[in-house]
Amino acid sequence: MNIVEIFETFPTQADCIRHLEKARWGDTATCPYCTSTRTIPNADRHYCYECKTSFSVTVGTIFHHTHLPLQK
Ligand SMILES: [Zn+2]
Q1: DSSP-derived pairing of the beta strands 53-55 and 39-42
Q2: I need a labelling partner for 3 at 20 to 30 A (CA). Which of 12, 65, 68, 71 fits?
Q3: How far does the centroid of ligand 1 lie from the alpha carbon of residue 65, in Å?
């Protein structure tokens, strides 16, 4: 996949996030801190009922510490 194809496939940051979530978790988000699946979507992040933490799909990935748009 080249850079042009990436832009065409994921035109927005939200599309990138959804794709990453699907690739990482399938239909149910798993908390990266306690591995619970008792989570609910919360805006573009998720909330864990077990450890009462909100997290995003980029936790623990190469994207976690970057503030660049995911398309980059
Ligand atoms: Zn948790």
Answers
A1: unpaired
A2: 65
A3: 20
How crowded is the C-beta side of 30, counted as CA atoms within 13 Å? 10
pLDDT in tens, 13-65: 788 888 888 888 888 899 989 999 999 988 878 999 999 999 988 776 666 65
| 14 Cα: distance to centroid of ligand 1 (angstroms) | 23
Ligand 1 centroid from CA 7, angstroms: 32
pTM of the model: 0.62
Question: Which pair of structure tokens corresponds to residue 42?
Answer: 């919360």
Distance 68 CA to ligand 1 centre (A): 26
* Sign of the alpha-carbon dihedral angle for 65, 67, 69, 72: negative
Alpha carbon 9 to its chain's center: 16
Token couple for 16: 């990138």
